[in-house]
Design a protein that fits this description.
Radius of gyration: 26 Å
Helix content: 10-25%
Number of helices: 8
Largest sheet: 6 strands, parallel
Number of strands: 20
Shape: globular
Order of helices and strands: HEEEEEHEEHEHEHEEHEHEHEEEEEEE
Structural class: alpha/beta
Strand order of the largest sheet: 3-6-9-10-11-12
Length: 461
Amino acid sequence: MRLFSRLFVGFLISLCALPLWAAPGSVQPLATVTLEAAPAPADNPLKGFMPYEGVYDFPHSLEWFYLPLKDLQKDYEVFDWQPLEKKLDAVAGRGHQAVFRIYLDYPQLPYGVPKFLNHVPKRAYNEHGNGEKLNSTSLAPDYEHPDLRRALNSFILALGQRYDGDARIGFLTVGLLGFWGEWHTYPHIQGEDNFMASPLVQNEVLDAFAKAFRKTKLLLREPKENIAVQERALGFHDDSFAYQTLGPVLWHFWPKIEKFGLTERWKTQPIGGEVRPDIQKCLWNDEKEPCVPPGQEFDLCVQTTHASWLLNQGVFALLTPAQKQRALSGARRLGYELSVRSVRLHRQARALLVELSLANSGVAPFYYDWPLELSIVDKQNQIIARWTTDWQLPDVLPQAPQIWKFTCHEAAKAPLQKGRYQLLLRAINPLPNGKALRFANKTQDETLPGWLTLTSFVLDN
């Protein structure tokens, strides 16, 4: 023990103006180190623009896909998960996480209701491109039918049992009801021509999701009358972003969020969506060529809604260099932007006390509690000690810096020899080959990929 104590005498002395020696039980404050800021990458995990599943050059960390319920459910309690597994594995194989939706009714695509429910009544319609493009109709099921309601409940519970907290999944949109699973059936919305599920069925679906998913974040298209969204852990997705997002039109996305008192929901639950398809590419033209309605400017929509991610296939097509740079800037504005402002170290007996000042200059928090790890590396950049902290990323809200403290106990750690070392920080992506969360600091990845270098120090014993 005497030798062990001597090996740590003078720990981190290089950060001090004078050679301070820590007596057992005493606390020696060391100098604060300020870290320089630098932009984080546009493909930081769980934020930014995403394409439909596939291989693309534009930086991203998320991929989107749909699946019909009939591909997954074969009977009330019989499921074939392979179509979903195949897609999730493909997305994860590219180091990305998936956002997806299951549908029953998708205009222009075959009916998505499982075959064992063929007896459930259905109604035909030819809006949303069916009549003009396909010379055919789509089918909307009777959501009130008890057999369909039973099947949906069984499916949601089974889906959650298998996939809640799956590292391959970034976010899940509730889906299932309405055209595209978007919880509307416009223009079939009134009287006997109303195709949409009743509030009773909508609440049944949300009850099932709330029971089935406690870890994976869920997003609903929008709040509605007579469905209980205030007390449920739900985010929302605006699928006409930068086109029908802001007011004064009352049926646009944000006026509905305001109507139901949910303007602070982004602090705990994510906001996502899709850039309106017909503006996805022209949105990044020169500022003198606006293609969005007045009052729906992209930056204003991001700042107001606190959106974290958007389906935006247009930027994954061919862009000019100028368009690409503007699109990259737009992607970076979404979601979080975490940086360490400063680090303060203290030496106490055989413990290192770490104090960080962490800031978020983005528009939203990071929504998952990924573990944060501290490590010490030697001059060969080999990790020789590491600690998992109790810090929680979702606590760091925009413009509300946090002070985090953690004690790295040296007991049971291999004694450090005389020499220079570095203290590093990282967030652990639960997807083994997933993209690292990179802090908006100049020393990110400076020592080791995926790690933020906090400071260096010298052991002089």
